């Protein structure tokens, strides 16, 4: 019995040491980013300038910003002056309706000028009952763009988008896109897998090797998509962060709650919950 107790303790110590090494590799704190749209919401709701709103966000411990490639230059310069890191850029490129050379060039030029390396592409919405031929064309257009971006060392990503007409709506449609373009990466959105009726942790395990960015979004219930602070709904935040840490993920956790009635309050609570879940993973591993 004593030998078994000693062995169990050694196994626990080894597991904790392994997790601690991973945490140290990814930083003492989680890398948290935020949509710039949310900074705009804080500015309007709290009657602050954009700069003041961004400063409030920075004070919470948010170091990265997710921006759109159509953002005005002065806003990007303001974020840079405050020391925000370039977490992710977002581009709407409607590959459903063709190759979109102008939108492609705009996105790649933005990435080059502003030194972003991760690009989330929203590839448009398919018509109802889209033909397999159209779906395949969209996949090939995305694959062509991924190849073009790779020449400039840009990681192109798609997320599990919360619309059934999206070419990347659920596991099956994402698998189809990834089969057409092996280098394509994944933005893992916790709330959107619930939206399409899939289990969050099952999807996480399925796509783990492709995940380069994470949107932390919570839901009130499977069929209630009201915005909530991260960690206050039904998404298993602790399990998501634990699995990502264990697997060596060292990317960003972007807080997301579009439509929040009090964005600053939601962001504050989300950041606190993410940090608590991060620390709990170390404590629970002892």
Describe the structure.
This protein has one domain (31-284): Alpha-Beta Barrel (TIM Barrel), CATH 3.20.20. The chain has eleven helices and eight strands. The protein has helices at 2-26, 36-46, 50-59, 73-81, 101-114, 132-150, 171-180, 190-195, 200-207, 237-246, 263-284; strands spanning 32-35, 64-68, 85-92, 118-122, 155-159, 185-189, 211-216, 253-255. Strands 1-2-3-4-5-6-7-8 form an eight-stranded parallel β-barrel, surrounded by five helices. Helix 6 (132-150) links the parallel strand 4 (118-122) and strand 5 (155-159). Helix 2 crosses helix 3 (50-59) and helix 10 (237-246) crosses helix 11 (263-284). The radius of gyration is 20 Å and the shape is globular. The model is unreliable at 1-20 and 22-27 (pLDDT under 50).
Helices and strands in order, then pairings?
Layout: H1 2-26, E1 32-35, H2 36-46, H3 50-59, E2 64-68, H4 73-81, E3 85-92, H5 101-114, E4 118-122, H6 132-150, E5 155-159, H7 171-180, E6 185-189, H8 190-195, H9 200-207, E7 211-216, H10 237-246, E8 253-255, H11 263-284
Parallel strand pairs: 1-2, 1-8, 2-3, 3-4, 4-5, 5-6, 6-7, 7-8
Core attributes:
alpha/beta; TIM Barrel; 8-stranded parallel β-barrel; globular; disordered N terminus
What is the 3D form? globular
What's the total number of strands?
8
* Mean pLDDT over all positions: 90
Number of domains: 1
H/E element sequence: HEHHEHEHEHEHEHHEHEH
Rg, nearest Å = 20 Å
The total of helices stands at 11
Short description:
By secondary structure, the protein is α/β, with parallel strands linked by helices.
């Amino acid at each position: 019995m004593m030998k078994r107790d000693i062995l169990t303790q050694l196994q626990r110590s080894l597991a904790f040491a392994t997790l601690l090494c991973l945490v140290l590799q990814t930083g003492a704190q989680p890398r948290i980013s935020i949509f710039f749209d949310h900074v705009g919401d804080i500015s309007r709701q709290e009657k602050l300038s954009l700069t003041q709103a961004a400063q409030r966000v920075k004070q919470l411990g948010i170091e990265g910003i997710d921006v759109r490639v159509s953002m005005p230059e002065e806003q990007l310069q303001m974020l840079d002056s405050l020391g925000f890191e370039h977490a992710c850029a977002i581009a709407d490129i409607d590959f459903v309706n063709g190759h979109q050379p102008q939108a492609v060039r705009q996105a790649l030029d933005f990435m080059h000028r502003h030194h972003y390396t991760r690009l989330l592409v929203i590839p448009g919405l398919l018509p109802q009952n889209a033909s397999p031929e159209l779906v395949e064309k969209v996949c090939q257009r995305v694959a062509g763009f991924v190849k073009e971006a790779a020449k400039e060392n840009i990681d192109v990503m798609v997320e599990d988008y919360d619309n059934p007409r999206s070419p990347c709506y659920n596991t099956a449609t994402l698998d189809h896109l990834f089969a057409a373009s092996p280098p394509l990466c994944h933005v893992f959105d916790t709330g959107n897998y619930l939206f399409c009726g899939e289990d969050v942790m099952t999807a996480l395990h399925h796509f783990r090797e492709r995940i380069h960015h994470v949107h932390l979004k919570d839901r009130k219930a499977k069929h209630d998509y009201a915005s909530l602070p991260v960690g206050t709904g039904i998404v298993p935040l602790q399990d998501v962060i634990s699995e990502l840490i264990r697997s060596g993920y060292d990317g960003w956790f972007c807080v997301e709650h579009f439509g929040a009635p009090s964005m600053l309050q939601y962001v504050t609570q989300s950041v606190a919950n993410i940090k608590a879940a991060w620390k709990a993973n170390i404590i629970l591993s002892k």
